[in-house]
Specification:
2-enoyl-CoA Hydratase, Chain A, domain 1; 4-stranded mixed sheet; 11 helices; globular; single chain; 11 strands; 284 residues; 2 domains
């Protein structure tokens, strides 16, 4: 059952259906511009979903048709970033949101249409994969404000597209269209606007048909390798050994021999209640 329209109260909300969670940035009248409250809501949503064993993939999207997110809400900067101390609080909220998103144990996909700028691109880069519509317009623009992009987020961008392209985007503060974003590796798949959502869900359904523990273990291995762990390390060898001794592998082999889809054991219901997050809900 599609539950995506049942709880659109907060500036960030999430739903779960068919073992796939959606995190929605929900300020369509402001092109989903990110407030301090929304950064905290994103962290809360990712943290809540990380605890749910019935969630096997997460998609992040913006509400409406015009934007994933147009970036930080500069209108509140005089208050939330008006001093060095205030900026430290704000930066901590951003960092916590990005870390929570990157720490999700299941595959994450940013589904991007329209504007995806500044903090919006930051969120997209924090996901495992980025699927974009041709309407996408992406960029990171702090130099327009005389601001220096955070080194941790700069490192993430460099790891994704390389130092020269990162310099290009940050030096110029220009927006790139979907085609250029795809060519430079900023997005992984590019679709016509009218099929983006269907193709994203088709991919996620393909992912969630596979062994859920194998998927989680694969994500751990790739993330550890990217962070510099040796491929022959005892830690990674133990992950592979545990899978070979586990029930998913045995069921996968049986299903292949018997020419049937595997019936992997899953925990919890396939649906779930929607949740909304805002400053008051999180006590901040």
């Amino acid at each position: 059952m599609d539950m995506s329209a049942r709880d659109e109260k907060g500036p960030v909300y999430w739903t779960v259906r068919d073992r796939i969670a959606e995190i929605v940035l929900n300020r369509p009248e402001k092109r989903n511009a990110l407030t301090l409250e929304m950064w905290r809501g994103l962290a809360a949503a990712a943290t809540a979903l990380a605890r749910r064993e019935d969630v096997e993939a997460v998609v992040v999207r913006g509400s409406g048709e015009t934007a994933f997110s147009a970036g930080a809400d500069i209108g509140e900067f005089a208050t939330v970033r008006g001093s060095a101390e205030a900026n430290r609080v704000y930066a901590r909220a951003v960092r916590e949101a990005i870390v929570a998103l990157r720490s999700l144990p299941v595959p994450t996909v940013a589904m991007i249409r329209g504007f995806c700028v500044g903090g919006g691109t930051e969120i997209a880069v924090a996901c495992d994969l980025r699927f974009a519509a041709r309407s996408a317009r992406m960029g990171i623009t702090p130099t327009k404000l005389g601001f220096v992009y955070d080194p941790v987020e700069t490192r993430m961008l460099m790891d994704l597209i390389g130092p020269n392209r990162a310099k290009d985007l940050l030096f110029s503060a220009r927006l790139v269209d979907g085609e250029e974003a795809y060519r430079m590796g900023l997005v992984d798949r590019l679709y016509a606007d009218d099929v983006l959502e269907a193709e994203t869900w088709r991919y996620l359904k393909q992912v969630t048909a596979n062994g859920p523990q194998a998927i989680r273990s694969t994500k751990v291995i790739i993330d550890r390798l990217a962070a510099g762990t040796e491929a022959t390390s005892p830690e990674l060898t133990a992950i592979v050994d545990a899978a070979l001794d586990g029930p998913e592998y045995q069921e996968g082999i049986r299903a292949f021999v018997e020419k049937r889809p595997p019936a992997f054991r899953r925990t919890g219901p396939s649906g779930g209640e929607p949740g909304a997050f805002g400053a008051r809900r999180e006590g901040r």
